[in-house]
Amino acid sequence: MSTPSAFDAPAKASPAAGIASATASATAVDVARYGESRQLATTPPRDISTRRPSIQRGTESTSASVGSRAGLLHTRFNNQNGSPASSLSLSSSLARAAPHSQDSIRASTVQLSNMIMPSPRHDSPRQNYVFPMIAPDEAFIPEQPLDEAASTGSSILDDVSSTRSLEGTPMQASGLTLLRPPTLSVDQVHGDDLSPTPDDSTPTPGDASSPGSPTPVASPRGHHQTLPHDHHSEPTPAHDADEHTPLLVVTPPQNGDAPSSPPRKQSPSRSEKLLKTIRGTLTRDAAADVATQGLKALPAVLLGTLLNILDAVSYGILVFPTAEPFISLGITSAGVSMFFITAVVSQLVYTLGGSSFKGGNGSMMIEVVPFFHILSSSITTDIGLEPGNERAIAATTLAAYALSSILTGLTFLLLGFFKLGNVMGFFPRHILVGCIGGIGVFLIITGLCVSTGLEDTEFTYTLDTLKFFLLDGRNLMMWALPFGLAAVLRLVTSFATFSERAGQLIFPGYFVLIPAIFYVVVLSARLNLGELRNAGWLFDVGGGEGKWYTFYEFFDFRQIRWGALWATLPTQFALLFFNILHPPLNVPALAVSLNEDVDTNKELTAHGYSNVIAGLLGTPPNYLVYVNTLLFYRVGGTTRISGLLLAGATLLLLFVGTGPIAYLPIMEVGALIFVLGIDLVKEALWDTRHRTSRTEYITIVSIMICMTLWDFVVGVLFGIVVSCFFFVVQNSQRRSIRSVHTGETVMSTVRRPSSQRAYIREVSKQTAIMRLQGFLFFGTITYVEETIKQLLDGAKWQRSPIRFLILDFALVAGVDMSAAEAFVRIQRMLGARGVTLVLCGLAVESPVGRALESVDLLSSPGVEVFSSFNDALEWTENMYLRTWFRSQKAETSALMLPGRQDGDIIAVEHLGSMVGSPRYSHIQDVGNRILSADHISSTDESAAHGEPLDTLVKAFSSYSKLDPKRLQPITKYLERMRLPMGHVLWQQDDEPDGLYIIEAGILRAIYHFSDPARSIEESMVPGTLAGELSALSGLPRNATTVVEQPAVVWRLSLDTMRRMEKEGPELAREFLGLVLKSAKVDYDILLSALATRT
């Protein structure tokens, strides 16, 4: 063409113009590569969604300027007229970063790999380089045979292209086509005679026997899958179906044909189904089965009833504090009735289908007791303990208890409805353990108060209280005796060995034995029960307290003080928070222990219904008890019949009332409370001493101290705050940098000519790589910032200055504002040193990308962004190659690239360090030593002999000093092939057919592993080999290789290779030695990529 191009630019252009003219527009690229008449639609667009999109900037301003933020000259070409443009003068609408196109990166890689040197120019000390490219249309131009071998290669290509091409040629039937039944026409289904005629055998353009049509593929099962049809009909071949054909084609009956299926029956209504179920249930066999199950469940029912009694007298009796006005009103023991009611409600809800555990045991949440005491104390303080306010305090307290159940139930219903059963699993376990330990301390204190008759409000942490318990003989005996009983039980169960059944019964049997021994002593000594009750050995129960419904007499809505009730909301929410933690933890643990598969959301819904009903009945919250259910199952309570019997037995206990409590020894109740308190404290302090970290253990102890000295709500809040503090401290100590590399040890998975690879390995010492991980916040970003500062320090910088810093965000979960601003500071530090910041492993639309874009980092000068780590490496390697090649030309010529136009390293060099830069000098020295010497040594010979010698020299020149004349005999064994884009050269596990040497274009190998997420891709550019190891070893292909861009390759088939070994063994040995050297380097790089990938 006579039209002047960027290659014709004058040599004495200004620095800015020379830098700007180093690139050209995408339009010029299309014209230069494909010709002015070529339509862009001829080549199908690449599916970017299946590749790794990188980040590209939009059209920029037409004025050049020097950036002030980093002091960088960052000039690019405008896509319209080729004038220089600065990326610093972006308009506000175009300031947002967009992905680098991987096509641009890959095209740059291909062009750089095609750099060859023609005959030396004697009028200039520098060399001119050209970029030979193959147009996509060239793949379809018939090859002009140069000799017999070339002609043979062309015919082989035609045969391969007709069977393996991915577009424009027939393909095998897909999986859907194989499974799809053939479509039958109306004539085929209803025709009288469908036997083939002689004319039917004549091939037609659509027949399978037509030339060029796809061969019908038999079903994997050996027969066609067809719809039912007339026995005279013959199925159409399966290949008539395509991807748009429905999987099931039903031909409606015609000409009065009867329907193929009988009329559909009307389904029974719900009432009919219910009546049928009732009739099936009310049979003699069903009644006998129920009776049998009931008899088998009696041991479990007796054990469950005994456990409910023990829980009622240990926890239910503590629902109301032993303080005024509840003592004077005589409702301190009414908590036992409330316990039984909420237990019956929960038991019925779980047994009647609410829970997947057929023998699940429901009971009152024992952890609510300390919170209930806080509620009652708060209400008493707000209303005032004055004469006449007693019933108001009682009514408001009962309303607060009921409100806690309703709030708990509604929360469980919402969690179950929105399928949030696993959300509570994110709550720190050690906080819950600390709260359990605090409840244990509360129970021990309550046991002291119950045993000695001290009111809860009178217990203080003073010296007088200590004297009361230790120096008063009567008080010491009253609490020491039940404490000793509790200690004996725990020592026996800890050190003695029992069978599984005996171990399950020892706890209830022990507390049945205590009252028996007590009354044996009373009867033997002829003691008076009234005197014992006055002395504090038995509970003093008033006459009215024996009725189970006593507490309902105080439910007077007119007496409720709503202001005092609303004032309890902070405590209510703390109690709610604690209540909702148990079921999401207990249900999965119980499912594992019982080996049952349950739906946590269903269990939460059941908890919601049971608690709402319990709240409407004015009783405390309830839940599925892990220990009771486990014991119930092991004794035989595995059916819903056993659950119903347990509910009935508990209901019977409710109707009996609280009168029998007056005959329970206080020491037994005190021992129960001490046992449970000791167990909870042991679980929190002793059992976790080796299972938690030091900070977690400190959190557990601090929560217990806060709950004991101040308040339960304060303890929960303090635990959350302490956990957050330790979380920040611990995560700040974690390494946010997964690994640090240099470009010398980590290279892109692109097979390049040997000399270019050697050059890149040397100059990539100027590339620093950091792979980040975790959540980057104000506590972890400091380590990243300090590590980068060390790279820029004087001594380290003098030894190994860097050109690029690659930060990989693939394993970064998020970035907060502090970390994002820290990256801005990092970019400014790098810019001051002329270092380009390369970000990869992120997308602009991702949370990490949005966080960095919020501080304008992605659109800053001197920052490049890529979606994958390999793309970033490939781009930096291309920049090193481009810089050296351009430095060798007398005139600044444009590299024709599609998409965004990238400059070379000088274009982003800091103005003050452009002249005499150690980094730039290093690039020049390495290039002159490896690339220049390699090209000069082979220029004359390769120019004289042409292809495929040029490609052979390019592929093997760095491994030994090649004599092109020595390699000349090899050319007669090579077949030249043109491959269209999209052509599949071979599939993974195919048998090898030979090795390939790439002259032009690009191939892509895809390595598939058992884990799809670990698949890796490798690109092969001109001057490299493909398929060499499988060809030499005779083993199946280890990757799928496709043509990414139209390519020209030279194939050495297996047969030809064996012929070469016979005809020229020395030549074959030398050639195969070069191939093995190249393969060794290629697979070293591939293994390095696999070892360092995330």
TrEMBL record:
It holds the Pfam family Sulfate_transp. Residues 958-1078 form the Cyclic nucleotide-binding domain. Residues 769-876 form the STAS domain. GO terms for cellular component: membrane. It is a multi-pass membrane protein. Residues 1-22, 36-103, 160-272 are annotated as: Disordered. Residues 51-66, 160-175 have a biased composition (Polar residues). Its main location: membrane. The chain crosses the membrane at residues 300-320, 326-350, 392-418, 430-454, 476-498, 505-525, 644-677, 697-729, 804-824. PROSITE patterns: CNMP_BINDING_3, STAS. Keywords: Membrane, Transmembrane, Transmembrane helix. It is found in: Membrane. It comes from the Eukaryota. Residues 227-245 have a biased composition (Basic and acidic residues). The keyword Transmembrane helix applies. Residues 83-101, 194-216 have a biased composition (Low complexity). This is STAS domain-containing protein.
